[in-house]
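#struct-pred

JT: dropping the chains for the assembly here, can someone run the whole complex?
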Amino acid sequence: MTNRAAPFDVLAQIGPLRRYARSLARSEADAEDLVQDALLRAYEKRGTFHAGQNLKVWLMSILHNLFVSQWRRGKVEASRLAHVQAMAEPAAAPAQDHAVRLSQIREAFLALSDEQRAALHLVAIEGLSYQEAADSLGVPLGTLMSRLGRARAALRMMEEQGSGTAPVRLRIVGGSDEPA
Amino acid sequence: MNQPDEPISEFDLHAYVDDQLDPARRIEVEDFLARHPARAAEVMADLRSRDALRLAMPAPASPAPELTVAAGRRLARALAGQRLFARFRRVAAVAAFLAIGWFAHAELAPLGVGNSIASPKPPAFVDDALMSHRTAQLRAGLHSFHAVVDYDREELGTATGIALPDLPRDWTIRDVQLVPASSGPSVEVELAAGRAGSMSLYAVRSDAFRVINPTPLRKGDEAVVYWQMGEHAYALTGGSTAAETIAQAAEQLAASLH
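RK: done, full complex below.
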């Protein structure tokens, strides 16, 4: 564990937290609010953090809980679709075909269900171990693995269909979250 | 060619993509993929999309809003202070007891009846310690359980948040187990200690802040000595015939934690 050297380097976690919040909230403005709320919540809950715990996992789990309990309902839902489109624009443009591919994968990723997106984000982008990711989401390992499996299958589908002509707007609206 | 010892599962394929396999298993998965081109294509696609995702979802390039950074600083300070306090408590718990003890006791454990002066009823963790000692005795008689004899107190301490004592060199470690307790994980160490025979050291993070000096207790055939320093609670259990030796050993362990 690297958190021995700099045990409470909260500032180093702000980047990853903002990235995770963007994946969850799918909007930059909402993501900034979410990170800020998560840090305030973490401060209130600081007594639950104990030595030996992984700071990143702890913070990610607070942010995720906040997203699930407050953000997913109402507030974000209404404005979400417009933002998805805005975020789907590539941030910086490397080589042209490369940029197209990145924007396709970003769009496919953001179209995944909340659960699948969170699971894939923690494992593939943040590089957490399966157990850390499961802890951070508060689900058993098996649930994490099945969400991961479905997320990857969906991206593969995108891969097979999407490498064609005009960018296919695959947008799943409603009913996309798997039960439990 | 070489058939892998265990069949390759979905889990292995994911873990291959996420680089969470040890090298030996990686080779087995690669061997499997070489014989299953369709699965190999899927794995390749997953690897590609993982790498693309990392590029597509970078950490934001813009600086974090000031309020966020301020909230982060405040949290970092609070956590660092907490850690300092925990260390201070561990090191100076006994010495500081008279100075801050009564205050802390009243503040932090208003319902805890026991205190360090006289503890008529032993705290709940003592029962847990006895139970895990008995379970360990049972386990020692079973061949199907593999004993873990590596007592890495740094690692155990980091994983459980419990400060563990350095053990005397002439003690032999027979088994180390993590055991669930109501307040979190606890550590159970089976020992063989010369004249005292077989003993168990039990350590848990209690949710009540207390300072209890080593206190002996007889329970039938067993002798227990328990003590607590702040949130860190310990019990040393063995046969009642060795009660004296256990009491001395407990004093020694408790002192080594200061």
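JT: nice. The first helix of chain B runs from residue 10 to 17. Confidence is low (pLDDT under 50) at residues 91-119 of chain B.
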